[in-house]
């Protein structure tokens, strides 16, 4: 958590090599944001050191996730079916240099043709940008929506992503992204993990 961009230095298992990890502003010292760093750990116990000769961001907690061969299918928001006030605008820091703005109230994005091999629960990544914390509603195949809290990414042109779990059926699916009574973040794309969690 930080009001401005700050670096944190990371050392694994006492190594002399320091990883300089540049972390963007989260919007304030009270706004949490997740960041991801790939490191190599030994089997058994390990130590991870965080520090800096200058001020680093405030840190709440860390999590360790074993990385296996994970693949995703990507769907660009500008290629979805837009309705209401939602429109495509240029954004050089987003994939393909495009994003969808004014999602919320009447503005919606409908992704169709999301094909999975079997029914189950899947990891959905939503890539977005926003200047404050905003909710986004996600409905799979017309079902009850999930309310996804998208944290302040540091700007409409600063990319962040949020992971949630959605239930999909074998074959083609639709995902509707919207907010019935407020503005949602600007949207870059979504990604669906190719294998189900359950």
Summarize the structure in words:
The protein has no helices and 14 strands. The model has no long low-confidence stretch (mean pLDDT 92).
Rg from alpha-carbon coordinates: 18 Å
Order of helices and strands: EEEEEEEEEEEEEE
Q: Report the sheet-strand fraction.
A: over 45%
What strand order characterises the main sheet? 5-8-13-10-11
Biggest sheet architecture: 5 strands, antiparallel
Provide the helix percentage. Answer: under 10%
What average pLDDT do the residues reach?
A: 92
Unreliable spans are none
Question: Can you summarize this structure?
Answer:
The chain is mostly beta strands and 198 residues long. It contains no helices and 14 strands. Helix content is 0%, strand content 47%.
List the defining traits of the structure above.
4-stranded antiparallel beta sheet
